[in-house]
Amino acid sequence: MSIDIIENVLTLLVTIVGLLMALFNYIETPKRGWMAVSLFFLAHLLSDYYWTIYTLVIGENPDVSAFMAYFGWNVSYAILLILAIHMRPKEEKLLFHPVLLVPIFLNIWQFMIYNRFGGFLNNLYEGVVATAAVCVSCQAIISYVKNRKNGAAFPWLHGVILAYFTCEYGMWTSSCYFWENSITNPYYCFSFLGGASLLLLSWALKKVYKTRGYVDPETDTRGMTFQIILEFAVFVILFLCCAGGYSVARIMEQNYPTGEGRN
Length: 263
Description:
The chain contains nine helices and no strands.
């Protein structure tokens, strides 16, 4: 099994786990933040699932210019940007610091080297949205540094969003260069770290709500056991659906001719 398949499957599993965490938190406490995180993972799942199944069945990555390959990720980036803006304290909206120029210049450079491989509009969209999300996250962190002596809480959510997009940036950049083997390719390191940051997204949002005075509703032992069983059941259902989709795709690939050789 190649490292590409391992990476794709692990990313898909991380997205499913993250989706379950966000959904059950939203059911327990129906706040806009939890709804946004749930929608983020749902959109992310579209591209993760497509990419993973395509790789397993066809044996190679989809065309990077294909609309379907990036549709879910593009939607998820926009949702994460909206979440970062929504959860940002009001006093940070007009905050400016020279550090905020760094992600702008870095992403301009990254866009120039990545655009050589096609997909101009897709690259432009992802670069703009990612840069905006990073700048908003940096605003929150800079504001914390300035006000921590006054008891300001660390913006965990914006820290996780910044870490996630930093890993995305590392993946985009490293994919532009040739690496002799997978061990020396930093793409996979950034991918696994990005997956880890996604698992921290719900935890970080919960931390932010706690610093703003929100207390989780109490759950008795019976309710907690039922919730764990329900989460596990939903995970199994999602996993079986993904496996079923893979089986159908494999059957279609084996029994239907490809476009090659058609009139």
